[in-house]
């Protein structure tokens, strides 16, 4: 074969190999041969303090003011992170305990009704018993939002019917409350 | 095809020239030419015969002029082009480029743990963001760290052999190596957070994940597919707080009820399709 036909053939064959599709860079969670543990995403050396650490700590220790937006955010985060076990109403009858996971306590038991919001934030941050920590998955501000929503769930179960507006009572069916 | 390589007049002139000659070699050449133009001998057969003749230098030398190195090359070029056209026809005409073999749609991959979205999302009802926690805030949806699996599997299915790699990973700190099913090439920039923020539901791009016992790609992640939506995103937009919802059959069944939603949202967000289809949106 002549050199040019070899070159042409090589060109055509190489167009099948897409070099640009696998560029020499690491995408997140790609394996790496550079490090002994094979991870491209290395954890920070021991003792490292993240730049946003003070802000996160502040968010964790100061309770945000109650607002409808906070409750809404809390409802969404609660649905994502807590509902599989604690269920929508907070009784602890989620789908996962139904498959053999230890039964979580109901949020409506007097001990937890009496607990303050910071306690819920603590449970989310550090876990409790067999429940793992959610610190990696739930941002500090969202932990307060979830705590606020759990408060709302608790209140919903115990609020006296006459505390509701007429319209709300009508919507709930009847008005004689229970 | 061979005849096409030689201008008619050359062949004619040659035949006339040869018929005037009486030598034995010329007779051979004549036979051979007749054979070529009559396509009796294969190309190789005749070339060999010619080669022998020419090497013996008994011929008139005329054939050597026709069958120069460049004639040989031209033939190869034609054959090569024909092969290329054939490949092109198979790839594009025959639908190979669209076939699932290339786009990987619906093809499962072996995973270190046979993780089932059908089980975890479909029957347990776990939200996508429980595991893919980066999806709202970063370009990557991210894969769940082993710690997330162990939230539940520290207590259930604790001895199951299929979960052994998960426990091993928790012990050693070495992440589970999932095989990707829905990656785009490195020269494409994709970002989840903007799509989620604007209310493009997961199901539009990843299909009914909640019905997949093993994860497979649901859509051909080709440029055309991205562009089809970027040209007119309105019909694909949904309320952002429901992006992880899988079943939108009520919207699709009743397009009238929601026909204004997308258009209004495109306005509200200030989405400009003309900008979305510029090359540097995705290739940067």
From TrEMBL, chain A:
The keyword Iron applies. Gene3D superfamilies: Cytochrome c-like domain (1.10.760.10). Keywords: Heme, Iron, Metal-binding. Residues 69-154 form the Cytochrome c domain. The keyword Iron applies. Coiled coil: none annotated. It holds the Pfam family Cytochrome_CBB3. It comes from the Bacteria. GO terms for molecular function: electron transfer activity; heme binding; metal ion binding. This is Cytochrome c. It comes from Tianweitania sediminis. The lineage of its organism: Bacteria, Pseudomonadati, Pseudomonadota, Alphaproteobacteria, Hyphomicrobiales.
